[in-house]
Amino acid sequence: MNLDTINFNELCLETTHKVPIKTNTIVWSAYDGSLSATEYTLLATGVMGPERNALGNHGATILRAEWQSDAADVAQAIYFMNVYVYPNYRDPKSVAPMLWFPPLPPNAFHDADPAIRHTMTCLALGYRICALLAADSVNPSGLDDLRHVRTKVLYHRNLAIQALSSSIKDERKRSRDSTLHSILMFLVVEIRQCASDWRHHFDGMTQLINLRGGIQSFVTSQASLKSQRHLVHYCLFAAFGNTTCIASDMARADFSPDQIDAIKEIYGNGLLSTCPCPPKLFLALVRINVLRSQATRSTVPMEGLQIQALEMVSYIEMTTEADWAAENRASGEGLLLLASIYQSAIMVYCIAALQSVHVLGHSALLLATKEKHHKRLMGLLEHCLKSASLRGGMMKCTLWPLIIAGTGLRAGTGDDRLFLERQLTETSASLGSQLPLLGKTVLRSVWSSPHPHWDDWFDKPYLFLG
């Protein structure tokens, strides 16, 4: 592979925007990160607005978007994440013992790559947009704030792209962990903000991982724990992103059968993300996607794939969720419920998607199995999302299962559809992401589609992860 051909602007980030913004930009090197608590608060808070915080801090005010410089933007981003976002992510800890991000110190990104600083600012701005859209009260300045915030997103996105492109072009930087981390964080923000070209960014990251020897190299080498944790999200994006797309257009991640052990090692116990799927079920999902992909190639014997598919259905059915919850010393019912939700969601996906590529047939037994698990999935979601003690955490962990449940409602009742639409709307506010709202649009398209097969429902690749 010719390294010079990997140009991040051309390969992954063509959709940049030129934003005419007048800004009193501060050169970052002039800010030494040594702000006192008072100075940091004054720099970060700026002008306050009275609208309600839709992210969960009821009664609190939300930062207005009148920012004057790059340094102030980053300071406000840190402040916003700590004051409005971090408290909202305490809820999932009551559901599962996951490792969520800690509060950020004022100088958290002083030594970080410029791409990280601008990407984190975009992330905070994305939350800010959702808070404005979900605000209950009518604020005369709300529309102006929204326009300003969206403009700032484009501005910082463009700066992040420039920084990433510079790192990719530099032979010394393109293979560093910091570059990989920067790209992954940018990809996270693009997905959360419903960027239509997220797959291009993912493919670019795949090429950089392959330059370092593939995901296997991170297991066999002395790669840092931080690098491996970032690869957890890469594996999640590949696995779940390859479910809501057509089988012939899957992401080009090297998830071949001989990479399963490496994926298993990187994924660990499945608790390092907001998609806490038990490892056995996650690896089953990876294998289902491999079967879908192989079914599109005329060189792969269909009989062998059909045998593997039936074995996969049996494997998912027999997977015991209690083992995972016990191994991770979970207290309460949260983790066990999540395991059951993902088991049924993966079963529904497995049967529907493999029937679409003619790897599974349409026997009465398979139909009954799919209907049983869809009914179970709907019941579990309703129980969790109506529970006062579980609801806050579950909304951040069940976006993909909500979408899978929705695909099974083509002949469903209006009440079930209304429940899912309402949950997706509320999940959007809880996550600070417009991705669940995109999910509503996709599900409405599925419900109105005249086509009965999985591969007919997705006009482009989607990724529904919180």
Automatic annotation (TrEMBL):
GO terms for molecular function: DNA-binding transcription factor activity; transcription cis-regulatory region binding. It is found in: Nucleus. Keywords: Nucleus. Pfam families: Fungal_trans_2 (PF11951). One of its GO terms (biological process) is positive regulation of transcription by RNA polymerase II. GO terms for cellular component: nucleus. This is Uncharacterized protein. It comes from Neoarthrinium moseri.
